[in-house]
Amino acid sequence: MKASHLHLAYGTKVVYDDCSFNLEPGDKVGIVGVNGAGKTTLFRIILGQQQLDDGEITLPSLRLGYLPQEITIPPEHHSITVWEYVAAGRPVDNLQDQLNQEYEKLAKYPNSQAILDRITNLQDLIDSYDIANFDYELLKILDKMHLSSLVDHKMSKLSGGQKSKVAFARVLFENAGLLLLDEPTNHLDVETKQFVTNYLRNYKGTVLVISHDIDFLNQITNKILFVNKTTHKMKVYNSNYSEFRRQYAADLAAEDARITEQEREIKRLSEFVARARATKRSNTALIGMGHQREKVLAKKLEELGTREQTYARVAINITPTKQSNKTPLEVQNLSFHYPDSPTLYENLSFSLTRGEKFLIVGENGVGKSTLLKLIVGELTPDTGNVIFGNNTTVAYYAQELEILDERRTILENTTSYDFTETELRGVLSNFLFYGDDIHKKVAVLSPGEKARVALCKTLLKRANLVILDEPTNHFDPETQKIIGENLRDYDGTIIMVSHNPEFVEQVGITRMLIIPSRATTDDANKSSKPEPHLALIKNYSYDLLEYYYYLNSDLV
Fold it and tell me: Sign of dihedral through CA atoms 471, 401, 82, 84?
């Protein structure tokens, strides 16, 4: 892939300014840069969804596989099974039908070179799908991504996390020559993420991945493409993410020193020009030198570099406006199932003590998000009760982001009587919204930007019970750390679903509810099926190792 002199601007907002780079076949490239730098825009250009103002991207003749941040299953696929949806990633039957039609045409026009060329191209495409290993590859991907038990399920029956995994499985099965992956690990449990990591590391094609997951980037990438929001340039680093950060820090230091030297020279020239302008007209020699220095000064000013923009972060005041009683929440004998689906849990009971940080874990599809929806009343249990204690106030962050009004701006969505606009600007800076960003309509934001607005709005409620469903999916490591530290110091109660062990440790989880997986639908109906299990966390680092065990153990 080769990019040459890319230029793109939206009105006066420059995105790319004369950007060029080269990538080799088989490269595994992490695309990084701050919010709004133009990472997802680059994917849209490659996919033909966005036009450049100038320049071009030259792609080899490869099939493209694309996994967006926000998974949407088309209505026409709602009634097909998981097996059918993933298998359609390699449309071999359709291609074989086209090939047969071309052979029928060839029988009528045996000397047609155009038909012969089409036959050759179709046969090459069919061969690239590796028909001999079609079923084996499909079964392997479904099994390793823990989707085997869902192969007969309709797509419309899947949870959000399951749909994301199925969509990812289809992209991997497509066997495309170029993969474009936008935040691919957001909804993956630990074991599935490890399989995907190994799969991509050994992938024969080229992979471009946008991700905030440092560990994932370090394990799969051999190059980093940095999109610089300040200079509107791009640069390829021949390294993984951690080495890129080291090299980038060195580049920043060198650039800062260069700009400092430029500023000294500009100051010296400006002072000389000022003296020359102020001298007597009779001092023609000094005036002449002043004119010469003025030309040099103009050139120096034009060449002056731009320092990287840094933003101050402020503490987020999420202290509850009032305290709950000792038991803010009690779940009594809760049972639930979706229509035409097995029971997710039966007679589930637990209670929370004020100040607890409570984690719900388990594989995709076991009912973690469903349990949160039952707690907040979005779903009704088959049996049992959810009881909130006196004075309990609830703030709920859902993956679906229903709390946002897309017609309003970021600022309007987060406005609160408890905060002035100046205070809100400071808080929003922790979520990577600066300056005029806060006046953007939510409708034009990316899925990641919407997620950050929703979490900010949730925390600003200053409730004494905060319920969070995968809150870090779109956060860079620095922002994740800031939010984690704020939640660690929060003196209310937290219920959280998260596949991010690092964030779990930052928050300081004190207890876990482990919801076991079901190997098959039949197993789910057996009386001996494993029950949800409560575990007390005593030591963060040690127990996070146990977290992996609980997530995948058959003994829970």
Answer: negative
- Tokens encoding 83: 């097996």
Please determine, for residue 35, whether its predicted confidence score (pLDDT) is greater than 80.
no
- How many C-beta atoms lie closer than 10 Å to residue 452's C-beta? 24
* Closest CA relative to residue 164, chosen from 193, 140, 135: 193
Neighbours of 320 (CB within 10 A): 21
In angstroms, rounded to a whole number, what is the distance separating the alpha carbons of residues 255 and 228?
Answer: 14
**Phi, psi angles (nearest 5°) of residue 337:** -150, 150
User: How does pLDDT run across 440-467, given as a tens digit for each residue?
Assistant: 999 888 777 888 899 889 988 999 999 9
Q: Do residues 19 and 65 make contact, with C-beta atoms less than 8 angstroms apart?
A: no
Helix residue ranges per DSSP H, 279-336: 284-303
Interior CA angle at 417 toward 478 and 451, to 5°? 35
Residue 491 burial class via C-beta count within 10 angstroms: exposed 0-12, middle 13-18, buried 19 and up = exposed
Q: Is 323 in contact with 350 (CB distance < 8 Å)?
A: no
Phi, psi of 350 (to 5 degrees): -165, 160
Token duo for residue 388: 């909130």
DSSP state of 305: -
The H-or-E segment that residue 80 falls in is: none
In the chain the domains, ranked by start, together with CATH numbers, are: 1-62+177-261 (3.40.50.300), 329-552 (3.40.50.300)
Report in angstroms the alpha-carbon separations of 70 from 164, 165, 196, 386: 8, 12, 18, 31
The model's pLDDT over 416-430, given as tens digits with 9 standing for 90+, comes to 767 888 888 888 887
Cα 345 to chain centroid, rounded: 30
For tokens 């023609």, what's the residue? Answer: 284
In angstroms, the CA 455 to CA 416 distance is: 14
Contacts of 284 (CB under 8 A, 6+ apart): none
Q: Kindly tell me if the per-residue pLDDT of 91 is higher than 70.
A: yes
